[in-house]
Amino acid sequence: MAGMEMRALRKSYGGLEVLHDIDLTIDDGEFVVLVGPSGCGKSTLLRMIAGLEPITGGEFRIGGRRMNEVPPRDRDIAMVFQSYALYPHMSVGRNMGFSMEIRRRPAAERAGPVAAAARTLGLDRLLERFPKALSGGQRQRVAMGRAIVRDPQAFLFDEPLSNLDAALRVEMRLEIARLHQRLGTTTVYVTHDQVEAMTLADRIVVMNGGVIQQVGNPLELYDRPANRFVAQFIGSPT
Ligand code: ADP
Ligand code: MG
């Protein structure tokens, strides 16, 4: 079970609170999309889930286990960023297998998972290449491949497609949907793209000013927005 529970989660930077009493339960296998204006706290919430930002208050559990103080390396979570953060001096294959390399898995054991992820993402023929010889879309695939190889309890995506052109964005969105259908891994996905949110999400979380405005499936939010902010953000008439 890799469901997540957030109870009255709070986050302050210095003295300033940027997330206030976040209550959210994410089911095992669910695809949850966080939306909201720039600065509302989406990335901060993802980073807290990943363990990259200390939690200031409240409770965070994964699969029932309290995670507040668990360091990132002991969380079974893979994060994909919009800046792909590939290692430039490593080949595609080594980039994808690096999480196993740092856990001292021998090369013979790393090859299988890397090859499987490469097949899934159409990267088979690029394994020997270096990141600088890849297109933006290919780099994004490698970043996703690196996450898949870990076979984590959960995927976190922070606006993974915002650097890609429109056509590639559509292609990668479909790829992510297929991947989730196949793997069924719990996913928290941040985007400011309404189409991505509406098409990928089991449920959408609308945030504003560090507060959750509404949680619901795409149709619910569209048909019954809780307030004017949600209505305007989701794009349904008020
Ligand atoms: P979003 O991803 O929704 O655009 P962020 O989570 O990046 O929002 O930011 C939420 C708020 O926290 C913003 O007001 C931002 O300025 C502030 N913030 C984010 N990171 C830091 C940090 N490292 N130090 C201080 N303030 C930060
Ligand atoms: Mg952000």
Automatic annotation (TrEMBL):
<dbReference type="GO" id="GO:0016887">
    <property type="term" value="F:ATP hydrolysis activity"/>
</dbReference>
<dbReference type="GO" id="GO:0140359">
    <property type="term" value="F:ABC-type transporter activity"/>
</dbReference>
<dbReference type="GO" id="GO:0008643">
    <property type="term" value="P:carbohydrate transport"/>
</dbReference>
<protein>
    <submittedName>
        <fullName>sn-glycerol-3-phosphate ABC transporter ATP-binding protein UgpC</fullName>
    </submittedName>
</protein>
<keyword id="KW-0067">ATP-binding</keyword>
<keyword id="KW-0813">Transport</keyword>
<keyword id="KW-0547">Nucleotide-binding</keyword>
<feature type="domain" description="ABC transporter">
    <location>
        <begin position="4"/>
        <end position="234"/>
    </location>
</feature>
<comment type="similarity">
    <text>Belongs to the ABC transporter superfamily.</text>
</comment>
<dbReference type="GO" id="GO:0055052">
    <property type="term" value="C:ATP-binding cassette (ABC) transporter complex, substrate-binding subunit-containing"/>
</dbReference>
<dbReference type="GO" id="GO:0005524">
    <property type="term" value="F:ATP binding"/>
</dbReference>
